[in-house]
Hints:
By secondary structure, the protein is an alpha+beta fold. It has helices at residues 25-35, 66-69, 235-244, 263-279, 283-303, 308-320, 327-337, 342-356, 359-372, 377-389, 393-406, 411-423, 427-439, 451-464, 468-484, 491-502; strands at 36-41, 46-56, 59-64, 86-90, 96-100, 104-106, 114-119, 140-145, 154-163, 177-179, 191-194, 199-205, 230-234. Strand 4 and strand 5 form a beta hairpin.
Amino acid sequence: MKYPLILICLTTIGLSANIATAKSSAQVKRIAQSVTVSIENQQIQEVGSGFIIQRQGNLYTIVTNRHVVCKITNTQQCATPPAAASYIITTPDGQKHPVAAPAVKILGADVDLAIVQFRSPKQYAIAQIDTSASLKADDVIYTAGFPATKPGFQFNDGQALVVVRNRMPEDRGGYTIGYDAMTLPGMSGSAVFDREGRVVAIHGQGDRYRNKATLVAFDNGQEGMKVGINRGIPVEILIRALQQIGVNIGSVPLAAVDSQTNADEYVLRGYSKWIESNDDTDPSEIGSKRRAAIQFYDRAIALNPKQAKAHLLRGFAYLQLQEFDKVMPDYDLAIANNAKYAMAYYARGNFKLVKLKNFASARSDYDRAIALKPTFSGVYLNRGDAKLRMGDFQGALVDTDRAISIEPDNPTYYALRVLVKLKLNDRSGATADLDRILKVDLDATGVPRSPASYYFSGTLKKNFFEDRSGALEDLGRARDMCQELEIADGSLVNAIEVQLAELGVTNRFK
C-alpha cells in the first residue's frame, strides 16, 4: 500500500516615531485587524488583501499588490487595470465599498504594488509605516489578511528570515524580504508588521510550489514541499514608488543600500531562481534554473558557511535534481548551524520518510519541528504519515486531526485521513473525508483549484472504494487541469498517468 505524502494625490502617510514600545502579539493583532481590508476583484472573481495608509477628508487610500488588481500573475506587468474592472473593498467593520478601475493606480512597471482609493464618512484606522531599516533576520514579524479559502481574518506570527535592502535582478517585483509566518492565497497585498505593530513590508508571494497550481509531494519526494519562505516588498520600495508618481510624503528615513552583496542577498537570488524553475514548463530550463539557484546558494555559503537557510534550500534543490547523496549533508548542516530551524527538521524528516524509509527517525525530526513551531500544520500531517506507516493508526489520526484543525482547507490532509480511518475500520468517516477532498479546495466559481485534489479523490476511489467510474472522472479531470495549466512534467503528472493506465486509459499527456 502506497501513501501519498501527502491605485491622486497624497500629502501625508502615517510614519512611525523613532522610539517605540514592543507590543504583545494580541496588541499587534488588534492593530492589524483595524487597518487590513479585503479586496475582491470582481472581474476575475479573486480575493486579495490590502491595508489603509491615508485618509484625506472622506477619501481613503489602500496599498495592495499589482497582481491583486490586475488579471495577471505577480511577475507580469500592467500599466492600468482593465477599464471594465470593478472591486469591492471590505473594511474592518464589514462595510463593503464598491470601486471602479479609475480608483486604482499601479505604482510602476517593476514593482508589484498598487494603491486603491475609496470614500467613506466613517473613521478608519491608518497603518503606521516604518522603514525596514531596523528589521533584521530573526526578528519577530506578523502577517495578516483575508484568505480566499478560509473565512475571516487571519493573523500569524513568525520570523524575518532574510532582509535585503537592494533591488535585485531576480526580485520579481521588489520582493527582497523573506519570512516564515504562514500565509494563504488571498493574503497578497496585506501588510507585514513588526513587533510594534508597524508595517515593514507588503506581502505578496506565498510559500507555494508554483503559481499555476499547488502541487503536493508523492513517494519520490521531489515536489510540493514547502520550503518555509514567504516574501514581501520592503516599505522603502513602496515609499520610493509613491515619490515617483509625485506623492509628497515629507522627510522619510530610508534604509541605506548595502554597498556589498551579502549572504542573504544570494539566498534570495537563489530562491527567486528556484521559483522561476517551478513556473517553467521546459524540462531543460527547469534543470538549468535549479542549478543556477544552487550557484547562488554556493556563493551565500562561501560568504557565510553557517548560513542555515542556504544549506536547507540547496539541499532541496539537490533533491529535485535527484542528486540524493548531496541532500542529507546540507540538511544536517542547516540544523547544525541553527538548532532551532523548524523547517530544516521538517525537510530532513521528509527525506527520511520518503527516500530513506526510516520512519522512526523521520518521526523524531517531526517531533523536534513541532516543539519549535507548534502551529506548523504540514509537520503534523507528515508525522501522521510516519505513524501510519509504523502501524500507529490512532496516533496518525491524532496528528491528521491536528493538521486539519490548523489548515482545514487543505485537501491533502483529508486524503491522508481517509487512509488512516480505513485502517481504523471507520469506513463512514473515510467516505466523509473522501467527499471533503474536493469540497475544501473550491475557488469562487465552485471548482476545485488544484489538479492534485482530483488526483487524490480519483486514486482513493479507485484503490479503496471500488468506484471505477468516479475514479475515471476525477483522474481525467486531474489530467485535463494539468494540461490547461501547462503542467507537463513531474511526479503529479506521472502519478496520474500510472493510475489511469491501471484503469486502461493509456493516452499520455500532450
